[in-house]
Structures are given as C-alpha cells and as structure tokens.
Design brief:
Helix content is about 35%, strand content about 5%. It has about 250 residues and is mostly helical. The strands form 2 sheets. It has a two-stranded antiparallel sheet. It has a two-stranded antiparallel ribbon with strand order 3-4. β1 and β2 form a beta hairpin.
Length: about 250
Amino acid sequence: MQRQYFTISILTGILFVTALVGYLAPASSEVPPTRILLDNKGGNIIFTHASHAEREEQDCVTCHHTSGNDQTPPACTSCHAKKFDEVFVADHQESIKEKYCISCHHQEASIAKFSHDKHQTEYAEDDCQACHHEAEIEPEPQACSNCHKKNGTTDMLSLKKANHARCADCHEDMYDEGTKGCGNCHTHDSASTSEPETQSCANCHAEPVDIIVPTTTNAFHGQCMSCHEKQGKGPFGDDACYQCHMK
C-alpha cells in the first residue's frame, strides 16, 4: 500500500512540475504569450500578458513602442537587457527580427527640426556672428560643413563637435536634458535603409548605453507604472511593489 502511495506521489509531483513549467514558460516569439515569468532579485514577477493585451484590444503598439501594426513584436527583453554586455549583443541578434534593427541602429540623425530662419530672426536678431565665426575667420557667413567635415582633424573640429559647441552657448538647457534634449533638433532617419550599419552607440552618443536604452527593470518600471498611474489603478508608486513582485 505504501509503495502504491509513493508511486502516486511521484506521478503527482511530475504532473505538477510539468504543469508549472507550461504555465510559466514563455511562448514562441510568433505566438503572444499568456504569461511571462520575469526573474528579479526583488522578487520574481508573473506578468499576465494575455489579460493586458485583451484590455488594450490587441493594440500591441500601446506597450511595444517599436511594433507599429505588427501583432508579433519582439519581447521587451530582446531590446531592454538586464545588462548590456557581450552575451546580450550576441543573443539579441538572434531574437529580434531584422526589420527592427533600425529602431536602435538608426543610420543617421538629421537636424530637420533646426530652423536657420528662426534662429536668424528670433534668436540672433540678424547678428550672424552670434553663431558664425568672426569676420577674420569667416568673412562671409557660410555653411558650417564647408569647413567642418564629418571626421575632424587636429586642426579642425568635426561638424558634430563644432555645432554642439556653438549651440551649447545658447541652448545649455537642452544639453542638460541628456538624450531627451536631442529631439529638440534631431530626428532619426530610421527609414533610410533596412540594413543599417551596425555601430557602437558611442559613435554618436556620449551617454552610456543603459541611459540611451533603459535596462529591463527601468523599462518595465517606466512603461508599466506610468500606465497604471495614468489609469489611476493597479500597481504604481513606491508602496505597490508587492503587487507585482513575489516574495
């Protein structure tokens, strides 16, 4: 009799473990998951993906800000890593669809929002030297790119450094905003190519990569808590950690 109970107990345990794994295991990237287990030092989180998708009427772009109309966007952890290291660099290239590369690896950033006329009339009051060099260096105001090229030399600043140095004289507040201030002038030309040149973020950005692209923790906290706070319900605020994190 004891042997029979022992066998039943073993089988029950196996079934329980199998059911638990099936309950928590992430689904295929092509099928929206029902639940997602997020491993966290502050207590693991079971995120009910299906119920959130249902509330948003399957409008994935509400949370997946790079998805557009794609019903199978990449997982948040594909772009937002716990740590941006060599392992993440290798893994994310396998987990993200090629079309999403341009979301981060934008080919260039134009200054489409910069208005020369507005600066001339409103800011400089027709005083060209407020931005351009003095007459002994620049007898007639001209395009900065005529002298400052993309790659600088020991005798000449690069176009980026020259412009940033000059603009910062008046727009110090924008630079104090960090990466958020970039949008005041720059727009990402992410549609220029479907195969952007893979390069280090540091080629253009001075900030560490985890400031430019939030880590998993910061991304979830920012996206989830701001939405719950806006709705006025659900977990948000410093006292609501237990509502997501399991002890």
